[in-house]
Design brief:
Mean pLDDT: 85
Distance between the termini: 15 Å
Number of strands: 7
Radius of gyration: 13 Å
Order of helices and strands: HEEEEEEHHE
Structural class: alpha+beta
Helix content: 10-25%
Shape: globular
Length: 116
């Protein structure tokens, strides 16, 4: 979870627009995944497109607020949209979390599985 943010803050992020480091719109934050051990918000489920919907997970710890309707991540749009595919309906496996951590060049997945 981003520094200075509370769990209540993060719970308001569903429905917000997500932009990349250059301000290019990536998509919409549809849901929040929580670490099953700590209960802390960990991943944002982002989707875009209507007919050919593309989905990705992005680390919440890297997000910052732009305004009351927009969040920004320090990644390029294509980096977010090329994140490893995961089963977004249910829990993330340890391997899925590790793949996401590697993709975003973050530390390892020491916590539990991600849950919606």
């Amino acid at each position: 979870m981003p520094r200075g943010m509370t769990r209540a803050d993060v719970m308001t992020w569903s429905g917000r627009t997500l932009v990349d480091r250059d301000g290019q719109q990536i998509g919409q934050i549809d849901d929040i995944f929580y670490d099953s051990r700590s209960g802390e918000p960990e991943w944002g489920h982002v989707s875009r497109g209507l007919l050919r919907k593309r989905e990705s997970l992005v680390p919440l710890a890297e997000m910052e607020t732009v305004d009351d309707k927009t969040m920004r991540v320090p990644f390029a749009e294509d980096e977010v949209m090329s994140a490893p595919p995961v089963q977004v309906h249910g829990s993330l496996t340890h391997d899925e979390k590790e793949a996401l951590y590697r993709h975003y060049r973050m530390g390892g997945a020491e916590g539990g599985q991600g849950e919606r």
